[in-house]
């Protein structure tokens, strides 16, 4: 049976500006289960945003297809909500109106009162108080604006939420607070999330699985690393779990060396699944990476 989201042999080529063609990535194939939280990590330029734009229906791949819930993705849809790093709020509307605008578009049959109640519910979930809801984006801090973007995306109840480095511009403290809120909302709604991040610790805290991309050009999704840490996760507690540093070291090693070593090597099909579970008695020695790989 196909997973909720199925990415099949995605290839993207662009003109290289010198009369030739560059293949950004080739034969990227992976699946995401319903309700799963998946992060993607890879060096700058490997094609993460391009993959996200294709999933959102904002870009067309050169080859390959994306199938969500049994239907091929072609063009944007309210079933796929996107949160970008730069908030993308409507500057002339208040925080509340930014969310009600989206909810009203999603549920045209709802009364004004229903729409406002739904919008308020999600703004409260991300920790925004009544007085803040009536301010325009220019009167909000970066962290508040990003909370509004996240509230707007969740309030629309998309089947798939796509997050492109949503916390990249935030200070560490605000980032931590909003990560916690994101986890709470996700746990409450059961929505499927696909997120780009450059932050390994953020990915480990949030994800069920992390997809690792090799360097571009000719990048590919090489590994799917299971995050074998119990939920709910608290950032202060997970670091003392026996799996935490084993997983973290694996990710660091991949991004440090293997993403470069594997660059440009052909290899289609699904990424290799990596499961690191020292708590279940698997050993990290002698060759850490191979010894930890339990599932082919
Ligand atoms: N419309 C386009 N025309 C030509 N090349 C493009 C186009 N869009 C993206 N690229 C190229 O494709 C490659 C992948 O870009 P993409 O933004 O997807 O990478 P990324 O992994 O998200 O990078 P970053 O982590 O820096 O955001 C880059 O080399 C980029 O220059």
UniProtKB/TrEMBL annotation:
Entry's Gene Ontology molecular function annotations: ATP binding; ATP hydrolysis activity; nitrate transmembrane transporter activity
Record flagged with keyword Cell membrane: yes
Subcellular location: Cell membrane
Domain of life: Bacteria
Protein name (Swiss-Prot/TrEMBL): ABC transporter ATP-binding protein
Family: Belongs to the ABC transporter superfamily.
Domain (ABC transporter): residue spans on this chain: 5-240
Membrane topology: Peripheral membrane protein
UniProt-listed Pfam families: ABC_tran
Coiled coil location: none
InterPro entries: AAA+_ATPase, ABC_transporter-like_ATP-bd, ABC_transporter-like_CS, ABC_transporter_ATP-bind, NO3_transporter_ATP-bd-like, P-loop_NTPase
Keywords per UniProt: ATP-binding, Cell membrane, Membrane, Nucleotide-binding, Transport
Cellular component annotations (GO), alphabetically ordered: plasma membrane
């Amino acid at each position: 049976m196909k997973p909720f989201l199925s990415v099949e042999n995605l290839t993207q080529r662009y003109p290289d500006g010198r009369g030739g063609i560059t293949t950004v990535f080739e034969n990227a194939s992976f699946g995401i289960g319903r309700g799963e939280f998946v992060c993607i990590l890879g060096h700058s330029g490997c094609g993460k945003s391009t993959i996200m734009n294709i999933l959102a229906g904002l870009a067309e791949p050169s080859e390959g297809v994306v199938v969500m819930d049994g239907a091929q993705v072609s063009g944007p849809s309210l079933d796929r909500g996107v949160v970008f790093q730069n908030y993308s709020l409507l500057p002339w509307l208040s925080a509340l109106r930014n969310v009600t605008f989206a909810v009203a578009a999603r549920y045209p049959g709802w009364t004004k009162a229903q729409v406002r109640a739904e919008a308020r519910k999600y703004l409260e979930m991300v920790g925004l108080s009544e007085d803040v809801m009536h301010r325009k984006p220019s009167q909000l801090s970066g962290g508040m604006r990003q909370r509004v973007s996240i509230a707007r995306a969740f309030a629309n109840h998309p089947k798939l939420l796509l997050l492109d480095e949503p916390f990249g511009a935030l200070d560490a403290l605000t980032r931590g607070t909003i990560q916690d809120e994101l986890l709470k909302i996700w746990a409450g709604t059961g929505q499927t999330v696909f997120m780009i991040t450059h932050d390994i610790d953020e990915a480990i805290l949030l994800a069920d699985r992390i997809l690792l991309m090799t360097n571009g050009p000719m990048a590919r999704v090489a590994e799917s690393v299971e995050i074998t840490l119990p939920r709910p996760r608290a950032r202060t507690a997970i670091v003392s779990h026996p799996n935490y540093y084993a997983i973290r070291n694996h990710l660091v090693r991949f991004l440090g060396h293997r993403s470069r070593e594997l660059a440009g090597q052909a290899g289609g099909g699904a990424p290799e699944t990596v499961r690191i579970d020292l708590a279940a008695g698997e050993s990290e020695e002698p060759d850490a990476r191979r010894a930890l790989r339990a599932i082919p």
